[in-house]
Design goal:
The chain is mostly helical and 288 residues long. It has 10 helices and no strands. The two termini are 33 Å apart.
């Protein structure tokens, strides 16, 4: 199933469309899960499944939009291309997750509806994803934290998710997230163990992001996946990287009472979505 899903994601972009129009925003080609058995297994709670897909899709979409803002702004062309490619990977994950959510929720929504026609309060991404990019060190440390956490989660979903489509999406994402984590880890070490200025900035980024760790570690998609196990694994990874970077390992405090998973976001998400959604909202159902 993994190969079927993976192949179709790419093939769907080159297949002929029935009409002469081409999509303007995100859909218009075939459903990216076309060809995969999308029947929900007996006993799976569709509301719960759709909620998990939307939450993980929102994390990916918002993160991708932040990474896209580095294009033409990164310190070097190579890093600019890397950020763009990582953003494209995450955008692809969001497309698949939104498509699955629409299928199982029965609301008739496609990926465009989830991405472009919801307000900030309806998004369920973790708040770390929506924070402004800051400097290069901040974006690198954020990517390290989010990719380490998402990789640990996707590895478990690939084997434990009761829905075979979600499991296939997670399995496809594991290789992508492994690269994301490695890229961020390499740069964290280079910056942390570099000049006094790069060390100062990287340490500052880590201190700023430490307060967002409890929100990540408090959430689990269910399906028998332990949030505590993910926290231990991610903490071990971060500890290894940060020791090599001569940086302190942050302490994890108690989780906040409300967070992005509840729709409680920072003031930064609204402007980010306004930028992301502006064309789609100006020209609903637009084609060219």
């Amino acid at each position: 199933m993994n190969a079927t899903t993976d192949d179709h994601v790419h093939l769907s972009l080159s297949e002929a469309h029935d009409s002469d129009a081409r999509w303007a925003f995100g859909t218009g080609f075939e459903d990216p899960l076309h060809g995969v058995d999308t029947a929900v297994p007996t006993g799976v709670d569709t509301t719960e499944l759709a909620g998990v897909c939307v939450a993980l899709g929102d994390d990916a979409l918002v993160s991708a939009q932040r990474l896209a803002q580095w294009v033409t702004c990164a310190p070097e062309l190579e890093e600019e291309v890397a950020f763009a490619n990582i953003g494209i990977d995450l955008l692809g994950q969001a497309r698949l997750l939104y498509s699955r959510a629409g299928q199982v929720d029965g609301n008739g929504w496609g990926e465009d509806s989830y991405a472009y026609f919801r307000d900030a309060a309806d998004f369920r991404n973790v708040t770390a994803a929506e924070l402004p990019n800051g400097d290069f060190a901040f974006s690198v440390v954020r990517l390290l934290i989010l990719s380490s956490w998402r990789l640990s989660l996707f590895q478990r979903l690939a084997t434990s998710a009761p829905d075979p489509v979600l499991a296939a999406i997670a399995a496809k994402g594991v290789n992508e997230l492994t690269y994301h984590r490695q890229f961020a880890a390499d740069w964290t070490v280079r910056l942390g163990d570099g000049t006094s200025e790069s060390h100062r900035r990287t340490r500052g980024a880590l201190e700023d992001l430490a307060s967002d760790l409890p929100e990540l570690f408090a959430w689990s998609p269910g399906f028998g996946i332990s949030a505590a196990d993910i926290e231990r694994e991610v903490t071990d990874v971060l500890s290894q990287v940060l020791r090599s970077a001569t940086l302190p390992v942050p302490e994890v405090e108690a989780p906040p009472a409300r967070c992005g998973r509840d729709g409680a976001h920072t003031v930064h998400l609204g402007p980010l979505l306004a930028e992301l959604q502006s064309v789609a909202r100006e020209h609903p159902e637009g084609v060219w």
